[in-house]
């Protein structure tokens, strides 16, 4: 049996903030921003630090600011 996840302490994550507009960018870049939960300049989302998320961020480093949180 799998033990339950610890409560009150989420794992390490990434705080992602959109700093540039997606207007004029490629459709794949706009889709990646939407998948990251970002809809406009200044919007922030906290995401888990996983390879899938890191790969998405690698596609749009010129549009976002990334901070690691623990």
How much beta, percentage-wise?
15-25%
Q: How many strand units? A: 3
Mass-distribution shape: globular
Q: Tell me the CATH superfamily.
A: Ribosomal protein L30/L7
* Major sheet summary line: 3 strands, antiparallel
The secondary-structure class comes to: alpha+beta
Low-confidence stretches: none
Distance between the termini: 28 Å
Would you state the CATH class? Alpha Beta
Radius of gyration, in angstroms, nearest whole number? 14 Å
Q: What is the helix fraction of residues, given as a range?
A: 25-40%
CATH structural fold name: Ribosomal Protein L30, Chain: A
The helix-strand sequence is EHEHE
Question: How many structural domains can be distinguished in the coordinates?
Answer: 1
The largest sheet has its strands arranged as 2-1-3
Q: What CATH architecture would you give?
A: 2-Layer Sandwich
Give me the number of helical elements: 2
Mean pLDDT: 91
């Amino acid at each position: 049996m799998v033990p339950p996840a610890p409560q009150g302490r989420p794992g390490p994550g990434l705080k992602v903030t959109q700093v540039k507009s997606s207007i004029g960018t490629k459709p794949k870049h706009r889709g990646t921003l939407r998948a990251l939960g970002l809809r406009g300049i200044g919007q922030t989302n906290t995401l888990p630090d996983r390879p899938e998320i890191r790969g998405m961020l690698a596609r749009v480093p010129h549009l976002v600011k990334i901070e690691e949180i623990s």
